[in-house]
Amino acid sequence: MKIARIAVPGRPPTWAIVDLDQSTMQPIAGGIEDWGQAAAGGRVDFTATAAPVPIAEVRILAPVTASSTIAGIGMNYWSHLAKLGHTEPPASPVGFIKPRSAIIGHDAEIAYPAITDQLDFEVELVAVLARSSDAADPNPSEALLGYTVGNDVSARDAAAPMVGLDLFTMKALTATSPVGPWITTRDEFGRSRQIDIEIALRVNGEERQRDRTANMIWNIDECLRYVTDRMALDAGDLVFTGTTDGVGLEDGRFLGAGDVVEAEIEGIGVLRNRVAVQSAPRVSGSRDHVSGNDQRRM
User: 39-44, long-range: CB within 8 Å, 24+ apart, which pairs?
Assistant: First the structure.
């Protein structure tokens, strides 16, 4: 089952069941906290709030709400680390928090802030919570509603004086991180803690990334447990699970204005966005950049 968050002209945003065969969206009542756990198991008895709407007539929003917390796991594919010069995997996951203001939906424009000249793409499987989960939860993947596609766009030249990497600038820029187009429920992926599906990313039709989620260093439960050991999660929260090799940081081919980026994950769909024209600097002057190994992370 696929569940989207949509906007229909003249109506408030709503969740909807996606019918790709009929090319329609069926608006439904309630939110993830109401039907999330049942939907994770394949429930189909939702309460419709309107007649099905053709997909072409809706705006597909990011599958999050104003209260969603977004966490991320970095350095989770060995091929990515090897391309960046690492000789051994990390001893534990590495995480970060992404603000809700960074998230945009399918077909929304990726902002290109003046603060960076190295805007990079990162296709990622994103886990979506159906219920709360905390450090006492032995199997946090059982708390999932399902999965969606994420593009963890990063400012690779982010720097902080004296300390090197500025992870806040790298990951928190407003309107830079697409998520969507919808959530595919957990029942469609089986009960394995290390699902094996293909992920890929194209820029202007050229493939830049391709891998399988089975190659993650840390499986879904380990990613979630890393987060919940530190911070409780709730229904509607998201966890990015890391990207594979092929990113712009490896060969210097970063995103530019007008680029069309398509992030695709097997069993979910294609998340498509265009990069905006770079905004003008607020004030003149030089930018701070990281060089060498300091920027080769996440």
Answer: 39/1, 39/3, 39/130, 39/145, 39/146, 39/185, 40/130, 40/144, 40/145, 40/146, 40/185, 40/186, 40/187, 41/185, 41/186, 41/187, 42/1, 42/185, 42/187, 42/188, 44/1
